[in-house]
Amino acid sequence: MDKDIAKSLLSLGKSFDDIIVKMFAEVEKIADENLKSRFNKAVGDLMGSVARDVIFPIENLYPDLRPED
């Protein structure tokens, strides 16, 4: 993959952050603790999948695209 595609994919992958935060906030409103736990896991898995399967591999291919901490 060329660097422009990598940059675009990283940008799109990282745009999930705001959505994930909002999803966790909504899940917190669920009264049923078992259901809340199930959805917390699902949202966490989604976040992990985007990071593990999209963001980290691209940053490994293009280390210069890693954000400066």
Which key phrases capture this entry?
69 residues, mainly alpha, 3 helices
CA-CA gap between termini: 25 Å
Rounded Rg = 15 Å
Structural class: mainly alpha
Helix content: over 70%
Strand % is under 5%
Integer average pLDDT: 95
- Tally the helices: 3
Low-confidence stretches: none
Q: Helices and strands, in N-to-C order?
A: HHH
Number of domain units: 1
> What spatial form do the alpha-carbon principal axes imply?
elongated
Note the main sheet. Answer: none
| Tally of DSSP β-strands | 0
Can you put this structure into words, describing what you see?
- This protein is mostly helical and 69 residues long.
- It has one domain (3-61).
- It has three helices and no strands.
- Helix 1 packs antiparallel against helix 3 (33-61).
- The radius of gyration is 15 Å and the shape is elongated.
Produce a short descriptive summary.
The protein has helices at residues 3-14, 16-27, 33-61. It is built from 3 helices and no strands.
Give the topology, please.
Elements: H1 3-14, H2 16-27, H3 33-61
